[in-house]
Amino acid sequence: MDDGLDAGLVLELPTDIQSIESAVEFVMSRCDSCRTRERRVSLNFRVGLTEALANAMLYGNAHDPSKSVVVVLSVGEGRLQATVRDHGAGFDPSAIPDPTRPENITRSCGRGLYLMRQLLDEVSFNDRGNEVTLVLRLDPGSALEGGAQA
Amino acid sequence: MSFQVSRSGEVTLIEVEGQLIVGNRQELKQKVLEQLDGGDRKFVIDFANTGYIDSSGLGVLVSLSKKIREQGGELRLSSLNDDLRTLFELTKLDTLFRITENKSQALEGF
């Protein structure tokens, strides 16, 4: 496979929310699969990665510009994978309330993890909770119409 | 992202160009709040030239809608592409906003 991410890609980003859009665009430009799987990847993976980076910078690193966010990307075995790690204390993802419930629907925050789970096939965290791994399967029939529900 | 602000009768129309995401959401929020402070009450935000919105962008729209309603006004959204509609449907925010096919429909009878 002639994919720009075939050998993997590691990025270390400063905590700067202004950098998120260009970082995501860079990743998408390096990934042949991202160009050929139009909506599946251009929406699901793009939004999922944007959310993971935003969470890492806003909540994990708490806006601290001296702390970085490390992104590890790979394509292989029919899957596109991104791992995003921050330097924060971590969090308990099971404690995040469902933002679609009536009592939460008018809250202005709390939709990032929900969107990741809806748009990606797999969303998992390390024990500490400062590293999230996103997986989008590239085989037909997965992710776009739902995604991970964990 | 950039946006253009224009008036159509009593309605303030804001046309967003580019992505509405965590890095630029405050610009849109600040602009709408300025208009709200200046007495505007009817708002349409048009996304005909917007690729996608992240959760922070969605959050800003929710926050603005609440503030506008508190002042007796209304925020309508228009011209969402299929991706944006998917995001609004996934988050059930399509139930919170009046969303129209295009800006003309949004302005109609406002």
The outline of chain A comes out as globular
Interface with most residues: A-B, 28 and 25 residues
What's the domain count of chain A? 1
Spatial gap, N to C terminus of chain B: 27 Å
Shape of chain B: globular
Category by helix and strand content of chain B: alpha/beta
Q: CATH class of chain A, please? A: Alpha Beta
Query: On the 0-100 scale, what is the average pLDDT of chain A?
Result: 86
Strand tally of chain B is 5
Mean pLDDT of chain B: 95
Can you tell me the residue ranges of chain A where pLDDT is under 50 for at least 5 consecutive residues? Answer: 142-150
CATH architecture of chain A: 2-Layer Sandwich
The CATH fourth-level homologous superfamily of chain A:
Histidine kinase-like ATPase, C-terminal domain
Helix content of chain A: 25-40%
Strand order of the largest sheet of chain B: 1-2-3-4-5
Radius of gyration of chain A: 15 Å
Structure description:
The complex is a heterodimer of chains A (150) and B (110). Chain A is of the alpha+beta class and 150 residues long. Chain A has a single domain, classed as Heat Shock Protein 90 (2-Layer Sandwich), CATH 3.30.565. Chain A has helices spanning 20-29, 32-36, 38-60, 112-119, and strands at 9-14, 68-76, 79-85, 122-125, 131-137. A 5-stranded antiparallel sheet of chain A has the order 1-2-3-5-4, with helices on one face. In chain A, a hairpin with a 2-residue loop joins strand 2 (68-76) and strand 3 (79-85). In chain A, helix 3 runs antiparallel to helix 4. The model of chain B has no long low-confidence stretch (mean pLDDT 95). Chain B starts with a strand and ends with a helix. In chain B, 39% of the residues lie in helices and 27% in strands. Chain B has 4 helices and 5 strands, in the order ββαβαβαβα. Chains A and B meet through helix 3 and helix 4 of A and helix 2 and helix 3 of B.
